[in-house]
Amino acid sequence: MRTAIDEPDERPVLRLTDVVKTFPGVKALDGVQLEVRAGEVHCLLGQNGAGKSTLIKVLAGVHRPDSGTVEWQGEPVAFGGPQAATKAGIATIYQELDLVGDLSVAENVFLGHEPRRFGFVRRGTMVARTREILKSLGHEEIPPRRMVHALPAAGKQVVSMARALSHEARLLIMDEPSAVLAHDEVENLFHIIRRLTARGIAVIYISHRMEEIREIGDRVTVLKDGRTTAANLPADTPTTELVSRMTGRSIEYVFPPRTATAGTDDLLTVTNLSRAGEFRDVSLSVRPGEIVGIAGLVGSGRSELLETIYGARRPDAGTVELDGRRLRPGDVGSAVRAGMGMAPEERKSQALLLGEPIHRNMTLATFTGLARFGFTSARRERAESERIAESLELRPRDVSRPVRTLSGGNQQKVVVGRWLLGGTRLLLLDEPTRGVDVGARAELYRVIRDLAAEGVGVLLVSSEVPEVLGLADRVLVMREGRMVREASATEIDEDTVLDLVMAGSLMEGAPA
Amino acid sequence: MTATALETGRKRLWAGESGESVSRNLILAGVLVALLVIGAITQPQLYGDSAWVWSNVLSILQLASVVGVVTVGMTFVIIGGGIDLSVGAIVALAGVWSTTLATQSFGAGGMIFTAIVVGIAVGLVNGFLISYGKLVPFIATLAMLVAARGLAASISGKQTQISSSDLINGIASTKLLGIPILVYILAAVAVAGWVLLNRTTFGRRTVAVGGNPEAARLAGINVKRHTMLLYALSGLCCGIAAIMLTAQATSAQAAMANLYELDAIAAAIIGGTLLSGGRGTIVGSVLGVLIFATITNLFAINGLSTEAQNMVKGGIIVAAVLVQQFRFQSVTRLFNRKP
Amino acid sequence: MTATALETGRKRLWAGESGESVSRNLILAGVLVALLVIGAITQPQLYGDSAWVWSNVLSILQLASVVGVVTVGMTFVIIGGGIDLSVGAIVALAGVWSTTLATQSFGAGGMIFTAIVVGIAVGLVNGFLISYGKLVPFIATLAMLVAARGLAASISGKQTQISSSDLINGIASTKLLGIPILVYILAAVAVAGWVLLNRTTFGRRTVAVGGNPEAARLAGINVKRHTMLLYALSGLCCGIAAIMLTAQATSAQAAMANLYELDAIAAAIIGGTLLSGGRGTIVGSVLGVLIFATITNLFAINGLSTEAQNMVKGGIIVAAVLVQQFRFQSVTRLFNRKP
Amino acid sequence: APTAAQTKAVDAAAGGNAAPGEKVVIGFSAPAADHGWLAAITTNAKAQAATFSDVEFKSVESGSDAAAQRAALSTLLAQKPNVIVLLPHDGKELNSFGLEAMTAGVQVVNLDRAFPDRRAYRTQVLGDNYGMGVAAANYVIEQMKAKGVAAPVIGEIAGMDELELTQTRSKGFSDTLTAAGFTVANRRAARFTVDSGQQEASQLLQALPKIDALWNHDDDQGIGVLAALNQANRKEMIMVGGAGSKQAIEAIQADDSPLKATVTYSPSMASSAISLARLIGQGKGLGDLVELQVPKEIVLSSETITKDNAADYLKFGF
Ligand SMILES: Nc1ncnc2c1ncn2[C@@H]1O[C@H](COP(=O)(O)OP(=O)(O)OP(=O)(O)O)[C@@H](O)[C@H]1O
Ligand SMILES: Nc1ncnc2c1ncn2[C@@H]1O[C@H](COP(=O)(O)OP(=O)(O)OP(=O)(O)O)[C@@H](O)[C@H]1O
Ligand SMILES: [Mg+2]
Ligand SMILES: [Mg+2]
């Protein structure tokens, strides 16, 4: 299977030369070279904002390059729109889920190219073909007639993939497909990718997780600031080299060392917290300066738990205490005033005012505190935001840029930065590094650790077990809405956690 | 598979698959029946006469027919992420244009043709301004409202124009199998709308265009052209409604169909259409129109004064929506995390 | 400070911090001037008299004053993600209530107090239905529109109620330094609105609540309470407007302030307020109101017929928005990826 | 509340009509009232019906347009009254209902807005819209001649422009002025409401820096028009009103404002229509007339109220 690639005269199916794409004020692509061969998994690496998503949007016909050439199967092409690209055999799974919530799974898969007769959708055919595709993806349990908004995030990702596969694609582009997937789902995804490449289909794969690239990738191209800094490296290039190509410097360690600063009295005490259908009888505590990590599968109720502790959801039973004082259930305001902060799971829909500038997003939870007699102080807000932007190494540093124009990782920094402004004493982090690049990730880890060193308690939810183990002082494992294990992070290893966590994924719960 | 997993699985199945909208519509039907029962309780002597009850039901249906047709078009526009404030004005313009002496000289066929062509043409202008001129739908159709009423007044010279076509006027006065033709027209438009929305690529793409225009664009749908077609469809419905209203009034006038835009939007929203686009049902919209017509009828048979009517009507609207809300709180909580 | 720092500083002033809206408003001001110039060209003899020109400007300002005050409140509601269809009805209800014989017996103070309390109270009911009853704003305020007009009709017995308070009526007829008091009121409300929106925590919350309610909630903002306050604020503006309108007409009536909701929404949107919430400016809204008033004035001094007025008005609205659009295509492309 | 003069208990002089006869069920419908004149129509009809012991009165008020009124009327028809008195939203639009009712054997009395088809009604009681314009114009012409103004600047504040009756009034006004060699310099349409009257008048004043005569179609909106004159400090013109509200008649009598006259269009016609409906229901005629039945059409003439005769009309003001 791999032999073809090793042949020196193998002609690439796709070749990009000197591609440039400028947005007002930003040169997103500044001379990109890329070469992809049939049947290979070609990984794109780059920091947040390096231009990966922009590059694939150029390939998918969404953006037109300002200059440079795109050769597809030996011919120079200029796609007029997404449909032209799909017709030519390029299918794309975008970073932002491009699904329509009120259409069924089958309708989403075939949106824009429905099997039809005289304008009528041939629903039987469509459902049957969807079922086939889902089966080939190993997800026959997803009912093709189910509305997409009723699917969990992982299910949505599968539908996105099914949609890409519904075209006769020669090249499949995946922009961070694993970001919303749990461990076992990623394995399944790789399985599918291998089957596709075996049929000679080329895959462009984007991810910030090095171990994935090592496992699935054949060759790697690295982007930095819209430029190709290294092309066609073998996938087993040492991480340190890849990282230095991406960042222009080397990052020695990923997880900062633990500092034994945890206090003795509990900062947060959660007692027998329950919400019907989500989680039951959860008790936990966090001490000042301690990082507590919660591991679990997608759908195990961790986000709901965090939101309930934070007051964003009202518990059916149980109490939440901060410093021994009970918080009003279902009242975020009082939680924030008491010193809690949360970086929610879906930053775009839950945390950001996309059209507003960075500094207004950063001060969203604290502008009242910075105000005098109800009058806001633009000067102080900006100064504070600039300070945080500096310490988080936000790109761009200009805090008056609208958040919408930032890359995903930098948006996440804005969200975390929001809680570094005020007197936050307990920080709840839900998937804080989802879609965040290696460099920024290390910075975020450092920030979180520094916060803990200052005495802030952190409660962290992450689907990446190494992250929980590496960052947290104490680990809690959650399964189907219950806490099944609590241990010090040094006493437990990844395999144990995975064993505890596995009890059937969310997707298996539904009858076909 | 454990029992609980199965259970949550079933629950989920119910939550998806438009089961939500089905039971939402059942509740609306319940509200409708409740209103009829209130009528029967308050006017027992009238409701004692079964012939009268039948004629009353027909009169409600007839009252609902014109706005109903307009609402079907409006439902498409709103599901597609837009809004059409000009529907009343289009009905008036189409009605006035089709009853000019010149048009009437071509007979009923010419009148119907004119009304429909005018409706579609104005709809296309709306659609063009919105898709290609990039105007906010609210502003574009508001401007069209003002302009179309002005044009209608200028064409009619602000006179009421009598329709002398017996064929047209007969649409309002003729019954088939005891049911007025107007009611058949509403039924036909509603069924056609349902099929269009649920069974054709056009309808499914409408949901996509309204629910996630970016996704629709990435899927290769020509969002601009589709948006134009949606407004044209609304215009077509207005053209049909213009003929129906002209037949009912045996005349047309620049001021007719006043504020139909509010009635149609309100009916669609009560029927479960999301004002932000991407969700809605034809059945719900028609039920919404019927509820409003039944309220009006209820007031008429009880001889309520206009001011009392208005006060009660406001209350009924709120109550009708609240009933749906509370029934669905549990289901919607799942989907809608916003407060 | 280095040269580059200075440069980025300048850029910042322009790009961020509502730089876009500043130049958007400049364009609106340009449209306004253009309309005045058209007036001067079409009526040179009138515009030759400078005293007349001054009085004409004042008359436009006076014409804009009442709707202007309502629009300031509406702008807050829309930026906060809502809509208030009941503003006209609230103005009527507050006006009627404050001119009942009983209220008038308390003198001008009593009348002003009543109008404002009624306005705020109705606004709070709207806000309550929307935040805690979870009604769609469109439906809740539509129901309120109907109900409040009904209540106003019932209170007034459908009679026109004459205001016999010279103090109240004097608001419309008295000038200070040559400028009518009504204009000062508009200016005061607009300035207060501007400060509230741009310089206070209340304004910041409004933008957050409208831009992304979930994010606002998770940042600790009490979205429901804030939403209630926004509708109360709109009600307060309606109460003030009711006094102004009563003073102008020296009377109040259940049918007054007809369709002010459309005028106010249209002015806000032309002024650059996003109908979906999260963005808008007071200056833009006031300019929008002034543009509409100037159009009306332009028609009047040219003696245009009602139907011609309407046709031209539709065209002007479209043109005014298109001018903004094309000027800003490059800038808006940044923010608005939807087609 | 209607003034005593707006309704009239039938006295003995009116032949045998005063005596209670067989019971008559009268159905009544008028468009939703949002201003004084229409409100007075409904209250007058109700009050007049209450003066008869042999009349059962069923009123449906009905919505904002012809379709809504039609629906309300069909529920009324289903209740099988003897006579229906209706003030149609628009005569032409509701003509077909008149026909339907007459065919079903229910007598129809049309109030104010004529049906084009003579088979659609038993009797029409109409105000004279064209005549109103004529009367207003005649007063203006007379005053201008008296003042010796050769080319007067004449303004007009009309009512709701989309109503045909507004057009008819304006036509009567301009036809008569034209005959005298005068023209309307500017015309603005208000909406029968006080605030629209004020607004349109203030713009009209802006357009016409000097006005000799001003006709305002409706006294209710006239309150606003007068307010605008007052606010602009413009008292140079004579103003003529329309309809004949109490407020307007008092102002004419007081003679302290530009309002010098008003041409009547009295809502008392509703009371007369109810009386006629009763007689039609009982098969009786008008006492003073020779005929045994009520006539087919009665058109009330539009009278001009000035300072001289205001006292006589005060009791008719609504
Ligand atoms: N539509 C747009 N308008 C303006 N700027 C844009 C637009 N899309 C992307 N950018 C900018 O282009 C640059 C490249 O962004 P892109 O999304 O391609 O990064 P990425 O490599 O995919 O990052 P991530 O790993 O965070 O997804 C960023 O600076 C981003 O802010
Ligand atoms: N019964 C259900 N029906 C539909 N969607 C559900 C259901 N249960 C959970 N979901 C959705 O599935 C997604 C994941 O669920 P949840 O938030 O409980 O998982 P989690 O443990 O927080 O996992 P993660 O944060 O890794 O996604 C959420 O978007 C949630 O809304
Ligand atoms: Mg990306
Ligand atoms: Mg989660």
Automatic annotation (TrEMBL), chain A:
Keywords assigned: ATP-binding, Nucleotide-binding, Repeat, Transport
Domain of life according to the entry: Bacteria
Molecular function GO terms recorded: ATP binding
Annotated TM spans: none
SMART domains linked to this entry: AAA
Domain ABC transporter: 14-250, 262-505
A Pfam short name: ABC_tran
Annotated SUPFAM superfamilies: P-loop containing nucleoside triphosphate hydrolases
PANTHER family linked: CARBOHYDRATE TRANSPORT ATP-BINDING PROTEIN MG119-RELATED (PTHR43790), GALACTOFURANOSE TRANSPORTER ATP-BINDING PROTEIN YTFR (PTHR43790:SF9)
Protein name from the UniProt record: Sugar ABC transporter ATP-binding protein
Organism: Actinoplanes couchii
Automatic annotation (TrEMBL), chains B, C:
Subcellular location, principal: membrane
TM stretches of this protein: 22-41, 53-79, 85-103, 110-129, 135-155, 176-197, 228-247, 282-301
Record-linked InterPro entries: ABC_transp_permease
Topological relation to the membrane, as annotated: Multi-pass membrane protein
Keyword tags: Cell membrane, Membrane, Transmembrane, Transmembrane helix
Compartments reported by the entry: Cell membrane
Name of the featured protein: ABC transporter
Record lineage: Bacteria, Bacillati, Actinomycetota, Actinomycetes, Micromonosporales
